[in-house]
Amino acid sequence: MRYHPLTHDNRAAMLGKIGARDIDALFRDVPKEAVVGRSAFDLPDHQGELEVERALSRLAAKNVSAGSVPFFCGAGAYRHHVPAAVDHLIQRSEFLTSYTPYQPEIAQGTLQYLFEFQTQVALLTGMEVANASLYDGSTGTAEAVQMAQRITRRPKAILSGGLHPQYAETVETVVSLSGEVVRAPVLPGRAEDLAALIDGETACVVVQNPDVFGLVRDLRPVAEAAHAKGALLIAVVTEAVSLGLLESPGAMGADIVAAEGQSIGNGLNFGGPYVGLFATREKFLRQMPGRLCGETTDADGKRGFVLTLSTREQHIRREKATSNICTNSGLCCLAFTIHLSLLGEEGFTRLARANHARASALADKLAKVTGVSLVTPSFFNEFTLRLPKPAAEIVDALAAKGILGGVPVSRLLPHDTSVRDLLIVAATETVTDEDCDAFAKALAEVV
């Protein structure tokens, strides 16, 4: 992609067209405390293309790739093995159809895999209907809250303290003008009493399972408490592989499921692009955001696929649109669909069991280190440790020894001093016995 810099005349023309006298006027709604001046960045005014390439290459060389060292980071983004067949198959010509499949006659490849994807997501989540994906898990969670507000005609959303803090912040940002958000206390390793927070104004309760600290919880009590007050339960899943082993959210009473599908078919990619999974009960179908693919027959009686319920989208009925979402993460959900198809039901279950076994073995090793204790009593492939020193310091010390040892909770909750000694550790099928031994040895040396 070529870079075409804007000239002063270009900027002046655009500002004049929209009626802003200068750049400051254009961004006048941005709080002053959020504006960072140019002087804050130590950047050169300009350089030639070769110099820029070299500078960027030097910066890129500072990154440590997940595959080059023992890797135990998670907290919403997980390293799994993606078969080479996935990358090969997503490039086949059958899928190189229109990215926006409004014309079914020229987009059957895209529409068919979206239909298969929806089926897979519905089966995984235990729900009756799923859409053709959203941007990612966090925005999907915000969409789920807004959907619950439409269904119940109530303003309040209760967020579990175990919901990923970045998901919670996304919900607060998106819902700030349409309702109220109440965040329950953060209780690492414990399930809080959400029932006590539910009242007649509550539209939904949002619970992550496994939660951000790795805790696996039974959603039934929360579902029953929510339903008793006329509210909905939104289940959030950030580790999609857990759905191969844990009871599905739908079976535990969830009304809407918002999940991150990155773990299946998609690499870490420095945080994106990812793929949001979204599923619900059939009775709520018309309030569900995003695209929905359906199966039909053509004039000759042959099986075919089309977009359905597209009137929900703002390009047709803007004032009655259920969401601003009218697209999907096409390539990422194709990779998801292919990877899951290659695994099959039995293979997916084996993968999930392998993840749990690896994490259990690692937790046992690390908990034996002097001064280290396991906070999470039940988990899938991720757990939280309490350390004798600030976790961020220990992570830096481990990195100096060539081990990426996890995510300090203080990185997710920077203003909460009570979590400074907590470390979230993930172990997937990509972790070896040697990696676990190296981690335990290095941790014993730095604590």
Overview of the structural elements:
This protein has two domains: 84-339, Type I PLP-dependent aspartate aminotransferase-like (Major domain) (Aspartate Aminotransferase, domain 2), CATH 3.40.640; 345-446, Aspartate Aminotransferase, domain 1, CATH 3.90.1150.10. Helix 5 packs parallel to helix 9 (330-367). Helix 8 links the parallel strand 4 (202-208) and strand 5. The radius of gyration is 24 Å and the shape is globular. The termini are far apart. The chain has a seven-stranded mixed β-sheet, with helices on both faces. Strands 10-11-13-12 form a four-stranded antiparallel β-sheet. It has a two-stranded antiparallel ribbon with strand order 8-9. The protein has helices at residues 8-18, 23-26, 49-60, 84-89, 108-125, 137-152, 165-175, 220-228, 330-367, 391-400, 409-412, 433-446; strands spanning 129-130, 156-159, 180-183, 202-208, 232-237, 256-260, 276-280, 292-297, 303-308, 373-374, 382-386, 407-408, 422-426. Helices cover 34% and strands 13% of the residues. It is an alpha/beta fold and 447 residues long. It is built from twelve helices and 13 strands.
